[in-house]
TrEMBL record:
Name by which UniProt lists this protein: Lipoprotein
Signal peptide: 1-24
The organism of origin for this protein: Desulfocurvibacter africanus subsp. africanus str. Walvis Bay
Organism domain of life: Bacteria
Entry keyword set: Signal
Amino acid sequence: MIRNLVFCLCALALLALTGCGSFRIDPTWERLSENQVQALAARQWNEAPGNWHIQQTVLLESRGHELLMSGFVRLDMAARTARVVAMNSLGVKFFDLEVSEQDLTEHFVAPDLRRFPEVATMLAESVRNIYLVPRLSADTPVWLAPYGPVAKASWQENPVFVFLDPATAEPVRKMSPERFWTVDYKNYAQAGDRLFPSTVVYTHTRAGLRLTLKTNKATLQ
């Protein structure tokens, strides 16, 4: 099982290259004011004060290989950090990583994975893209498209487009065309007084990799 994980993640590490892509803002779309953007951001789950504690079932797919894992995530929204632990159905731990917007701390990496140093780095990148970056701020340009607000943020000098639900302002998709990754947030459900996505799908098209995260429990403390 560890070998399957190594194969899948090495595919990402070897093929996650920069490239070109496109998404264009229609010049006829109305741009929202800074106050409107601040109001949208404040409603989103990833701007909630406190710590999210998430239990997940994770399916990793890459080029015909699949691996099912249990995932445990603690998000500190003030510090903008994520502590992520993954294990198999028998409780054998694959990794325990702590990720911030810039740094990575490896609390544990299984020996078979440790032989490939780039794997932890690529895992950290996927965690950042799903949970931590980019953040909407008052000066983030946001336009009102026919299907809902669209933000054009930036991360590592690359544009990241964030598509928001017109009713809830929650993110439904993030995409970085130049880095070939997309995150879809689906099936929002109530978690205390906030909404949280029941399903998250992270896709890296160049690497042929997909992570499907099914939320079993999410609490905000």
